[in-house]
């Protein structure tokens, strides 16, 4: 299935390669570089590239390209999902996944890749199972491996859950404090036009879990309004038939962190837009222009809008902007022409405002269009879709766990046209 994997940085260096079958020369990446050269930005590289004898399937994450080489036709989404799983695993092991971290932990990275794929086919992809096989890095292990020249972190015993019908959970788990936490995170992708009308709006949702429960608990999670959830994707632990019939999530959870499900709420359902902008951006012939933007909360059910950041990409003819912000700080990059305003928290009593002058090159024409403002924000304890957990029940164990649910709404690709 997956023949080889190449990891490429932003400068076009193949700094890591892994082959599960015969070695494929890294010159195969020339086809990828050709496609990359045609793309307007890194995210726009075609995910599946056809070559005379191979297919190159790639993802872009953390300023790195992960390029898988396959020699036969395979479901491309399967390979894309697996590449994302590799990145998630590296982030779980090393807290982040970037070039310097991967180079620092070369040995562990190759050990992980050896276990995740067997002869090119996915084998162990659950993080908690992998951690039984390959111990996460620590200072003592690094010194020992360096001195002895051998790897001390690989277990010679197969994980206990690997041969059971619940391969994502190891047996004999014990905790002094039994806890189950659920984070319901929703991201709003929206385009707002000049008049403030919503052109399109969609919600992407995730339920991320941290489960620290002893034994083999069997959990059921019910929602007040499960019918809202559309286009759902589940962790393998979820019993799909039960969801189909009763809209109840029934599962034996993995141990530790994992994503229980993701869902999509499309444009056919009304998506509440939690922030609005009042904006005036005018250019005048020969004398620059005027910039005035106010940001405020809308449909937030009394919750505070936090971590607000506005990014405004100005035209190339703009030399500088001289602005005054009523709160927060702003910066302007004269090379990329990007103005970033870090607003912080929105105070409803006095709405944040930024205003000032735009300086453009002498003799240059007035820009044809105003910039599109990218907005970032976070709202705690609110799910914009209205989804709400009803109850969590546990079977199979006699103790009473501590349970917690947290709701977070944040901006995905949230754009306001001016």
Write the element-wise H/E pattern from the N-terminal end onward.
Answer: EEHEEEHHHEEHHEEEEHEEEEEEEEEEEE
Unreliable spans? none
Tally of separate helices: 7
Strand count: 23
Terminal CA distance reads 48 Å
Strand content: 35-45%
**Helix/strand/pairing category:** alpha+beta
Give the overall silhouette.
Answer: globular
Q: Profile the largest sheet.
A: 9 strands, mixed
Rg, alpha carbons: 25 Å
The overall pLDDT average reads 88
Helix content: 10-25%
Largest sheet, order of strands side by side?
11-13-9-8-23-21-16-19-18
Quick structural overview:
With 418 residues, the chain is of the alpha+beta class. The chain has helices spanning 29-38, 76-94, 99-104, 106-116, 127-133, 139-148, 240-246; strands at 2-8, 14-19, 48-50, 55-61, 64-70, 117-118, 121-122, 179-192, 198-212, 218-223, 230-234, 248-251, 256-265, 275-284, 288-297, 305-313, 318-325, 329-333, 338-344, 353-360, 372-380, 389-395, 402-417.
